[in-house]
Write a structure and sequence with these properties.
By secondary structure, this protein is an alpha/beta fold. It has one domain: Metallo-dependent phosphatases (Purple Acid Phosphatase, chain A, domain 2, 4-Layer Sandwich), CATH 3.60.21. Strands 1, 2, 3, 4, 11, 12 and 13 form a seven-stranded mixed beta sheet that branches. A six-stranded mixed beta sheet has the order 5-6-7-8-10-9, covered by helices on one side. It is globular, with a radius of gyration of 17 Å.
Length: 258
């Protein structure tokens, strides 16, 4: 079976390339599951219910989020009605929304959830290691394979979680930094791993934002609006092939233009 995991969708350019390429990729590569991180899909910060629905209609089976989950006004009141969306699992239990999603195809049930890292991150979250352990134990018997997304700043934290879940998750894939890492690999017990899948959006940019204002901010420290850039739009994703046992067999990084 094949899983396509799409890294941080940034703004309208990111949404448009997902809508253009996902149907083609599903048909041409025989992809069974498509999961995407959409926490920056609304003007580069947060997401809306309407955007989640449009991504789902374009062929994204499950949508994950990150530390910008609540950036768009009103989304906290929408998330509970979005069956295909899960907010980070290690946010406080009082937060609205699902802490996981289970999607199915051909009698295979794929568990999907995200944990936020805590190193250099400002969001209030519980231990990602213990949270992942608890969810996998709580849902045992209800899934055949698991995609665990680690939305974190530190590569050490991402690598540590990969090894911690090796053999228990089909894939442990990182997001948040918007820069793809050259470490796509199978761990010892056949868990697919990558520190960061990268950004789906404008790559002629600084992390998806227009270049000049960001440079100016570094030079003088003055606040500025960082608009979403438009040049060199790419889809960045990890393609994971795995057996019905849930064990990964292959992982490859994709970076595609329309």
């Amino acid at each position: 079976m094949k899983l396509l995991f799409i890294g941080d969708i940034v703004g309208k350019p990111g949404r448009e390339i997902v809508s253009a390429l996902v149907p083609k990729l599903r048909a041409e590569r025989g992809i069974d599951f498509v999961v995407a991180n959409a926490e920056n899909a609304a003007a580069g910060a947060g997401v809306s219910g309407a955007i989640c629905k449009s991504l789902h209609e374009a062929g994204v089976d499950a949508i994950t989020l990150g530390d910008h989950v609540w950036d768009q006004k009103g989304f906290a009141g929408e998330i509970a009605a979005l069956d295909c969306v899960c907010r980070p699992a290690n946010l406080p239990a009082a937060c609205p929304g699902r802490d996981h999603v289970i999607i199915g195809k051909n009698d295979f049930r794929l568990l999907v959830f995200t944990v936020l890292g805590r190193s250099f991150m400002g969001a209030k979250s519980e231990c990602p290691f213990l949270c992942a352990d608890a969810l996998l134990q709580k849902l045992a018997g209800k899934f055949d394979g698991a995609l665990v997304e680690i939305h974190a700043e530190a590569t050490s934290e991402k690598q540590a979680l990969g090894w911690h879940l090796d053999g228990r998750a089909t894939a442990v894939l990182g997001t948040h930094t918007h820069v793809g890492t050259a470490d796509a690999s199978l761990l010892r017990k056949q868990t697919a791993f990558m520190c960061d899948v990268g950004m789906t959006g404008p790559h002629e940019s600084v992390l998806g934002r227009e270049i000049e204002p960001v440079i100016a901010r570094f030079l003088d420290g003055m606040p500025r609006r960082f608009e979403v850039a438009t040049g060199d739009v790419r889809l960045s994703a990890a393609l994971v092939e795995f057996a019905k046992s849930g064990r990964a067999e292959k992982i490859a990084w994709l970076t595609l233009r329309n």
